[in-house]
Task: structure prediction
Amino acid sequence: MNLLHRVNWLGWSSFVSLLVIWELFARATPKLELYLPPVSRILGALGRALAAGSLTQHGLVTLGRFAEGYFLSAVLAVSLGALLGYFRVFHSLLATVIELLRPMPSVAIIPVAILLLGIGDGMIVSVTIYASVWPILINTIDGVRNIDHTLIDTGRTFGLSRWRILWQIILPGASPYIVTGLRIGLSIALILVTTAEMIAGSKGLGFFILDEERAMNSANMYAGIVVVALLGYALNGLFLLAETYAMKWRHGMMARQAA
Amino acid sequence: MGLGRFNGIAFLLALLALWELLAQTQLINALIIPPPSKILAIFFDLLWSGQIPLQILVSMKRALAGYLLAAAVFIPLGIFMGLSPTVYRFFEVIVEMLRPVPPPVMIPVALLFFGLGDEMKVFVIFFSCAWPILLNTIDGVRGVDWVLLNTARSFGLSRGKIIWQVILPACSPQITTGLRVSLPIMLILVVISEMVGSTDGIGYFVLDSQRRFKVAQMYAGMLALALLGYTLNQLFNFLQRLLLPWQRGRQLE
Result:
């Protein structure tokens, strides 16, 4: 019953009416077939491509590249960020290099990556790492720098080793910032994977969508976009779930502070 | 602070010197990673000959058209969605369905409808800048102090006047945030769309240089892009101070 109240009936009906208008409009104007096939035909193409396994395969390739790139960039950026946030010397050395590289749109690295690594998985994963490192790195640095210094000093007074201070004080303290960086990095990683696949791929959803467009199979192209959207939606949902789980302690702490 | 700045620049220069040395002595393949001196020389050549400024101009025309269009459509929509729960619910599902689509995936759709022309890029940029602008505007409007609104109402201000004189100024910090977040997205998407389907623009220039193996020219194009990103950000800050000077004062409070 509660769920029934929370469902946004108005929103869903406007969404469904939009699809119905699309369907009717596309059927009424066959001229548009090439650009805007009826929704039913897109869903049919989606079903066929999924059943044949081709779309699933492209989807898995994209997911694999994404996971590899995103995971590596998270590990790299958080450790580098902790280092740069904690040790002023490192930060003062690298700050100018970071300031110079960061405003460059990350996709501009793709041609260099093609040159150095050729066209293949390695290139696509590398550009994904490069692009999603930035938001995670910057946020981690900010997070580490914003930790209440009393906490670190207290840890020192109690004779905690540097390592334990890092694990038990600095990383948890900076985690809200790190999570923000990771969330931004997630969507950027997805953008870079699909882009790199369009520019230099022979597999993956980005390749599939552009290839179907060039072959004028617009129903398949839209089917590919639906799959990418679902993938994006699922990854975001998964992230929120993991965040709620991992940051549970923090909500508890905030509530206690408020009370 | 001054020392930190000095350290950073010294480290950058040391890196560049090492790169130059490695490339000059062929310890790294200078065909693929040419020495910085060569990249800079080509960069200035392309700058004076007007080729880089021309490509940037072409790209910026497309980028700003899409960006401003997105602002013109989604700031008003965000205000209405923030003010009226009904309007919000009406659009919510459609927005939530479109938002998780990674923007570059819309390029093939835009190619289909608009071909290789400017409209294709403008549409893609419009689509990708839409969400940060829309969501931040909605948040901003919802965060407006109700006392402010009720005061305006009791003074008998019309709806239009309330929107212009109370709501817009009150939520301009969030709108600015949305516009700021969209700025790098705009730059990324103009570059991508020019790489995937174009015959000019700075994104095309960089990818085309790589394909023709004009490697130093490719790096020069990337340098131009980095400078462009930096300049756009500074320009944004400048405009913000110029047009919304009271924002800074309020933040200091």
